[in-house]
Amino acid sequence: MNKVVKFGGSSLANAEQFKKVARIIQKDESRRYIIPSAPGKRTPDDTKVTDMLYGCYNLAIMEDEYEEEFEEQLSAIRARYDDIIEGLGLAVDLTEEFKTIRTNFTRKAGRDYAASRGEYLNGILMAAYLGYEFIDAADVIFFDAAGNFDGEKTNAVLSAKLDETERAVIPGFYGSMPDQKVKTFSRGGSDITGSIVARAIKADMYENWTDVSGFLIADPRVVKNPKAIDVITYRELRELSYMGATVLHEDAIFPVRREGIPINIRNTNSPEDKGTLIVEGTCRKPRFVITGIAGKKDFASITVEKAMMNSEVGFCKKVLEVFEKNEISIEHMPSGIDTMTIFVHQDEFEEKEQKVIAGIHRMVEPDFLELESDLALIAVVGRGMRATRGTSGRIFSALAHANVNVKMIDQGSSELNIIIGVRNHDFDDAINAIYDIFVKTMI
Ligand code: ASP
Which residue has its alpha carbon closest to ligand 1 atom 8? Predict the structure, then answer.
């Protein structure tokens, strides 16, 4: 058995958290490759080291004027690591490392270089604490000259390197470009590094340790104490993340998915919880008919009506072209026989709305055009829905009981999700009504 284990920033925020992490790693022999994030927040109003580094770099490039602030900020960053070193009783001295960082900052080595030092230094400490080999991600994770991740080169170099390395710590979040410059993924990108390493060693499992016990069926800010999801498929997860559920970086799914490696989301502060298992497919019967509910607010809809629109060749294309020309992305597009409705982000649409209306008139001469704003979209996702009759019926009667007026409904052809449009102010009630009928009443 081979596992890749990634720990998020809150799992490594101080020496106490490092100790928990080491206990988790030492409990299972197969946890051989460790991916640390940078130290995160120790308390809710604390600052992540990554953000401190971005701030410090901004001061560095403003040069002389901010020299004092720059030095202060760099010392504050060093203090975060020295605290950990002291708390763990490590014989590590970061003086030389900070000298190099200081020089590179003043030479304007780049924002990505600056941010990457958070993971880099944490990796050094973690390797020393565990007695594992340290592998600099810049030597094994590659981007091309345009800054896109180079999966094939990375996979070849990384798997060869790890083949000869029994146990290693590889910092998350960054790699290097052909000119040796450091490049990072987008924020939260250590999740991606973990997935890349899991692919390279064809791991049996990619464990992603964070501060929650997995994905929850619904957003805890909307539903009180929602249950966690035991098992979710990659496709279900994709639907839910798209609609705003966050725990894992969206791009972290692709490398492991192509190798069929499961991801297990676990809680460092509650290691006995099983967390959520993310898999390609499963025969295991879902506990509830629905796997999860997620949603987003603040959409506008544009309904275009024209008799016989279905028989007019290229009608939809012409309407969509108007949005394309105005650089407005389309979120969702349910259609009827003589109508089509386009959902867009309200803030993107507002300033261009008159141009869009005029454009549609010019392109397709509609009989009627209607705009609505302050709408929310809710996705009810579940592989269990395919095998269960009456799911949509139950959703709509629950919403009717909760006095929620449904503006739109769309069932994806995969039968994996149902999307419902409601007014913004009905958003919480709608999600709670759906949660109650499928989860609460079933417990
Ligand atoms: N430390 C980086 C961030 O804060 C990357 C990560 O934690 O995954 O975004």
Answer: 188
